[in-house]
Amino acid sequence: MEGTINSSQDVNVGKNGYVQGNIVSKRVVVQGHVKGIIEADRVEIKAAGHVNGEIRSIELVIESKGIFEGNSIVKNSDKSNANKITNTEA
């Protein structure tokens, strides 16, 4: 599949699945291959999973033999706390 996936539900990329593009969801489980940006509260890369790109999440779980190549950005789950930190730095 090529393109963008926006979902309020969980997104599961199966063992034979391939996504080239961005995924935005609450939870993403990768058992196949994703090339692009994943933005979710929780991202799980299973043993057969491969992610190449960027992950923006609160939680990132990589099982043994799961592959992640790219950048990981940890999102803050408490947005009010993030604003306080930003304001004190100004």
Q: What secondary-structure arrangement, pairings included, does this model have?
A:
Blueprint: E1 5-6, E2 11-13, E3 18-20, E4 23-24, E5 27-30, E6 33-45, E7 50-62, E8 67-74, H1 79-89
Parallel strand pairs: 1-4, 2-5, 3-6, 4-6, 5-6, 6-7, 7-8
Summarize the structure in words.
There is one protein chain. The chain has 90 residues and is mainly beta. The chain has one domain (5-89). It contains one helix and eight strands, in the order ββββββββα. The chain is globular and about 35 Å long.
- Indicate the proportion of strand residues: over 45%
Radius of gyration: 14 Å
Biggest sheet record: 8 strands, parallel
Low-confidence stretches: 80-90
Give the overall shape.
Answer: globular
- Overall mean confidence score, pLDDT: 88
N-to-C SSE series?
EEEEEEEEH
Distance from N terminus to C terminus (CA atoms, Å) equals: 43 Å
> What percent of the residues sit in helical stretches (DSSP H or I)?
10-25%
Number of DSSP strand runs: 8
Structural class: mainly beta
Number of domains: 1
**Helical stretch count?**
1
Please give a quick description of this structure.
This protein has one domain. It has 1 helix and 8 strands.
